[in-house]
């Protein structure tokens, strides 16, 4: 028995129905999760529109996913004829059902972590399979989940196929016209603009996960001048120069400038620690060691991360740049040979090292740091005797800090000053760490991971205080980004706030600085404290030189670029869209701004982001084009 004439279309129609039902179910689950985690609630009319938009958004990815199957069905005669044909058709349906259900489970788990549909993070997960697969295995019951997916797919496949075979009556003809229609719909996916909404949560709920993943892959890098608002290059340069606070500029255009020290020169060792996912909201009862150290430090209480990924934090901390659209510079071609913090330290005779507990090929970090003059000390070169605990992302923070201490001891023994960039991993899913360190069991969640990282930091500082080099060392610590930057808007400022401080007992007086500032300002602030003169293309400024009204910060997603100041937030988006709204730290985001007030903020945002992108793409950030020193007659910032 074989398919009747319209059975081929019926087969794909049943598969489409299953696809739409699965995505509607996912949308419902995500809606409940958004209500619980983001306090999202919608009126019945809004929900109806949301589901309608969602169904339309689901159509195009379906044709892309099923195009190979459609080509087989519509072009090959009697492809499903006989018992073998029916078996193959049923198997293909079951495999697609498994794919649909697996995607549903993956989307739900991804939303639980990031409050978002699949995005560039998911793309990275497909690239760095070793760490990700291990992370998934350690975080979730993989075998039971896959077994459940397979079983549910079988439960859905059997009645669908029985219904189809029951109606099969006579041989089916080839259908090139129907295939052409499927091909046209699949091609339309490349040009389709999903039905959207101004509210981020609504937009994410109405989206389709597969399309979001496909879109993220396509837009991994964005040309600023092609997608964002632009202005005359000379005007942009002048606006950004005005924001540097005054300096001796090395060229007629651009912001390369000579910065003169305003205090006596000091050459201590420097240990910079970027703590995984440490937002200011995580400080509290789980961080007694950090709380104590903050009270003894120069603490910046209103400092904002530039992005939502570790590579964004690295970019800001080493290059002192606003975030460029798309992927971080750390992961892009041309990321080597740039002027960085390492350039300044090496000009003063320092050993510079990147110390990381995982394998630094992840996110191109080793290539970035080695390409910019840093020694690489990652898990690949750590001795097995120095490793006591590992998970998907690397060694535990205790092992990482022990390695940092050993590297510092060796530098001190050889009589050379050192600058270490240390990146932690323990405050990351699967949130596992050595048992017995903190009250929360390993793998129990974020709270336990934060408590463990705080424990490891406390132990590190106690061990360091016993070293002979401690009294002449500055510790610079901040989060690389927050644990979650998702909210109802694309750029909710409160979700970018991270702790940052300079700690050097007896050398740096404790103080809390409340000026609004950026992660990109940490490097210029450090060099200001050290009393160093240098030539710089840094966009950041010393926070200590900023007047309260001059405070500003850059915040971003992969596509939305924001500039925050005391009173407003300017946002630039692809397709040359821009907007500005009121903002205060106390009241949060307010109404949209118009007129001169909006124009001034937007022009500054456009100038800074455009110039940062141009300087990178045109090679103006390369170390070979900059001399770290400066002439004596230069004027201070």
Q: Main attributes?
A:
2 domains, five-stranded antiparallel β-sheet, 637 residues, single chain, disordered C terminus, Alkaline Phosphatase, subunit A, nine-stranded mixed β-sheet, alpha/beta
Overall description:
- Helix 2 (44-75) packs parallel to helix 8, helix 11 (233-243) crosses helix 19 and helix 16 (397-413) runs parallel beside helix 17.
- With 637 residues, the chain is an alpha/beta fold.
- Strands 3, 4, 5, 6, 9, 10, 11, 12 and 13 form a nine-stranded mixed sheet that branches. Strands 15-16-17-18-19 form a five-stranded antiparallel sheet, with helices on one face.
- It folds into two domains: 7-218, no CATH class; 226-625, Alkaline Phosphatase, subunit A (3-Layer(aba) Sandwich), CATH 3.40.720.10.
- It has helices at 7-38, 44-75, 82-114, 120-127, 129-139, 142-167, 176-188, 200-206, 209-218, 224-227, 233-243, 288-294, 310-319, 341-347, 365-371, 397-413, 446-464, 522-530, 595-617; strands at residues 248-249, 257-259, 269-275, 298-304, 351-356, 375-377, 390-391, 394-395, 418-423, 473-479, 497-503, 511-513, 517-518, 534-536, 552-556, 561-565, 567-573, 577-584, 588-592.
- Residues 1-5 and 628-637 have low confidence and may be disordered.
- 45% of the residues lie in helices and 14% in strands.
- It starts with 6 loop residues before the first helix and ends in a 20-residue tail after the last helix.
């Amino acid at each position: 028995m074989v398919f009747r004439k319209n059975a081929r279309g019926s087969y794909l129609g049943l598969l489409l129905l299953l696809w739409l039902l699965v995505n509607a179910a996912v949308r419902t689950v995500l809606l409940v999760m958004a209500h619980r985690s983001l306090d999202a609630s919608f009126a019945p009319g809004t929900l109806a529109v949301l589901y309608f938009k969602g169904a339309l958004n689901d159509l195009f990815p379906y044709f892309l996913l099923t195009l190979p199957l459609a080509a087989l069905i519509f072009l090959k005669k009697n492809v499903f004829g006989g018992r073998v044909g029916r078996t193959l058709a049923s198997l293909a349906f079951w495999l697609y059902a498994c794919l649909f259900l697996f995607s549903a489970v993956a989307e739900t788990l991804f939303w639980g972590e990031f409050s978002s549909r699949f995005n560039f993070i998911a793309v990275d997960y497909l690239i760095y399979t070793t760490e990700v697969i291990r992370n998934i295995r350690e975080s979730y019951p993989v075998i039971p989940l896959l077994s459940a997916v397979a079983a549910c797919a079988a439960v859905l496949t059997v009645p669908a196929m029985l219904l189809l075979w029951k109606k099969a009556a006579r041989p089916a003809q080839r259908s090139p016209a129907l295939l052409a229609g499927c091909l046209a719909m699949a091609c339309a996916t490349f040009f389709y603009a999903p039905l959207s909404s101004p509210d981020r949560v609504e937009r994410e709920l109405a989206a389709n996960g597969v399309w979001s993943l496909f879109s993220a892959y396509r837009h991994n890098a964005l040309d600023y001048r092609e997608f964002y608002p632009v202005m005359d290059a000379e005007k942009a340069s002048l606006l950004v120069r005005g924001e540097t606070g005054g300096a001796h500029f090395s060229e007629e255009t651009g912001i390369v400038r000579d910065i003169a020290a305003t205090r006596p020169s000091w050459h201590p060792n420097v240990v910079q620690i970027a703590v995984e996912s440490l937002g200011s909201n995580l400080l509290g009862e789980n961080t007694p060691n950090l709380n104590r150290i903050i009270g003894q430090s120069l603490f910046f209480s209103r400092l904002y991360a530039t992005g939502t990924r570790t590579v964004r934090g690295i970019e800001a901390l080493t290059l002192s740049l606003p975030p460029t659209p798309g992927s971080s510079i750390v992961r892009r071609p041309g990321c080597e040979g740039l002027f960085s913090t390492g350039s300044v330290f090496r000009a003063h005779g320092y050993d510079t090292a990147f110390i990381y507990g995982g394998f630094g090929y992840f996110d191109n970090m080793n290539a970035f740091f080695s390409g910019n003059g840093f020694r690489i000390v990652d898990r690949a070169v750590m001795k097995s005797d120095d490793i006591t605990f590992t998970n998907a992302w690397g060694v535990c923070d205790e092992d990482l800090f022990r390695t940092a201490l050993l590297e510092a001891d060796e530098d001190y023994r050889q009589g050379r000053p050192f600058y270490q960039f240390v990146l932690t991993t323990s405050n990351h899913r699967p949130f596992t760490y050595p048992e017995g360190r903190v009250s929360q069991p390993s793998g129990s969640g974020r709270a336990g991971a934060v408590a463990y990282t705080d424990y490891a930091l406390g132990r590190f500082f106690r061990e360091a205080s016993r070293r002979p080099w401690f009294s002449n060392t500055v510790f610079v610590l901040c989060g690389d980004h927050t644990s979650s930057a998702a909210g109802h808007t694309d750029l909710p400022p409160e979700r970018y706030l991270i702790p940052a401080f300079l700690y050097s007992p007896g050398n740096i007086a404790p103080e809390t600085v409340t000026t609004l500032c950026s992660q990109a300002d940490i490097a210029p602030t450090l060099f200001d404290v050290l009393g160093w003169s240098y030539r710089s293309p840094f966009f950041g400024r010393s926070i200590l030189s900023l007047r309260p009204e001059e405070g500003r910060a850059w915040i971003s997603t992969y596509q939305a670029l924001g500039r925050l100041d005391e009173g407003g937030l300017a946002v630039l988006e692809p397709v040359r869209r821009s907007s500005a709204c009121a903002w205060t730290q106390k009241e949060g985001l307010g109404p949209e701004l118009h007129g001169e007030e909006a124009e001034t903020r937007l022009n500054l945002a456009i100038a800074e982001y455009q110039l940062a992108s141009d300087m990178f793409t045109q090679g103006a950030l390369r170390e070979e084009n900059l001399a770290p020193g400066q002439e004596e007659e230069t004027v201070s910032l």
